[in-house]
Specification:
Strand order of the largest sheet: 7-6-8-9-10-13-14
Bound molecules: phenylalanine
Oligomer: single chain
Number of helices: 12
Largest sheet: 7 strands, mixed
Order of helices and strands: EHEHEHEHEHEHEHEHEHEHHHEEEE
Number of strands: 14
Strand content: 15-25%
């Protein structure tokens, strides 16, 4: 991993509280990390403008893990041993966060994942937290939407067998959709980074599904949508938060329009807190913040709030303060961390339109 441009690193022990970030800034998950970093940096600028924490300014050190678990593990080791950060934020993709948690837990440095939804992430230990909902809920949301709203009876699944997130969501969706009386016609697999999905899509087409559940990341989903349409598969595609990227519209073009995915937040929410965040983000970065930007901002603010409340900045004190987070007003929902260190929050369902995801509905836990 290399240093991200524009992230100043203070010298060690300079009276600066350093937060560490490991996330993807390059590769097939790049927009996840770029948005997350933007949200985190925005929260830090605001906190510093308001006087910092415990008389100290905050700064952030960001490593690019390229979306690879091994790189993510190395990056957190560096953040802990060389940079001596007080808290770690990241990653987005669950497979990367799982690798990070392995290193962070024994070191006793608290970690908050903004957006990793696989349940196993926070099960790695009592120093690992997240500010988002988990996949048993997200999978249920899309199963219910498919069954009750779209009236789908037969759904095919196309999963990424290299992603803990995708495997987990496939399991939940399959179980919930079947419990609701639906039928899974076939489950096909690909590996992250593949570019030809025609064999799996041809197998799916034979089963004549009403919809195709693709719990993957935008880079692959965009290509899958195009190849599905080329093969004459017209059924809508359904997915999860991993679709959330401005690149989805570019990669998927008209092929992805009319498909649906579950997500953490919609920038169209007219809550004044959300609208202020959207306006400030646009002014700083020139685009509409996606869910990662919102969750990065929220994760950083939860860390900052805990640093303020903690009696000192030792790993144990900060861990305990994060664990006590209650009714924290995030832009992607109010955050109370439960005894499993997860946030219980509502989800939204979005419909892919022309260059934009349109809000359809909110589902409460
Ligand atoms: N939930 C995904 C995972 O755990 C990551 C993600 C979150 C992607 C939000 C996009 C938006 O792998």
């Amino acid at each position: 991993g290399g240093d991200a441009p524009g992230t100043p690193t203070p010298p060690a022990n300079s009276g600066t509280l350093l937060l560490g970030v490991a996330t993807a800034l390059t590769g097939g998950q790049a927009t996840f990390g770029i948005s997350t970093r933007n949200g985190i940096e925005m929260a830090i600028r605001e906190a510093n403008a308001a006087g910092g924490v415990k008389g100290q300014k905050l700064a952030v050190k960001v490593y690019d893990d390229q979306g690879k678990p091994e790189e993510a593990a190395q990056a957190v080791t560096r953040l802990i041993t060389q940079d001596k950060v007080v808290v770690i934020l990241g990653d987005v993709a669950s497979s990367n966060s799982l690798a990070m948690a392995e290193k962070v837990q024994p070191a006793g440095v608290p970690m908050i994942s903004p957006a990793s939804t696989n349940p196993a992430v926070t099960e790695k230990g009592d120093y690992i937290f997240r500010v988002c909902f988990i996949d048993p809920f997200q999978g249920f949301v899309m199963a219910k939407f498919a069954r009750d709203t779209l009236k789908a009876a037969n759904v095919a699944v196309l999963q990424d067998n290299k992603s803990a997130y995708s495997i987990g969501l496939t399991e939940v969706f399959t179980r919930k959709f079947t419990e609701m009386g639906g039928k899974i016609t076939t489950t096909e697999s690909f590996s992250q980074g593949d570019t030809d999905y025609r064999a799996q899509l041809t197998a799916i087409k034979k089963t004549q599904p009403d919809a195709i559940y693709v719990p993957g990341y935008y880079s692959e989903v965009g290509i899958i949508a195009r190849q599905a349409r080329e093969l004459g598969l017209k059924a809508p595609m359904l997915g999860g938060d991993g679709w959330d990227s401005e690149k989805l519209f570019e990669l998927g073009g008209s092929a992805i329009q009319g498909s649906y995915f579950s997500n953490h937040y919609s920038p169209d929410n007219n809550d004044p807190r959300v609208q202020k965040f959207v306006a400030d983000y646009k002014a700083a970065y020139g685009g509409v913040p996606d869910a990662l930007a919102a969750l990065g901002y929220d994760a950083a603010n939860v860390a900052i709030d805990a640093l303020k409340r903690a009696p000192d900045t030792s790993g144990k004190a900060v861990r305990d303060a994060i664990a006590a987070t209650k009714d924290f007003p995030g832009v992607a929902g109010t955050i109370t961390l439960d005894e499993k260190r997860n946030a219980v929050k509502s989800a939204v369902v979005l419909k892919v339109g022309d260059g934009k995801a349109e809000f359809v509905t909110t589902v409460n836990p």
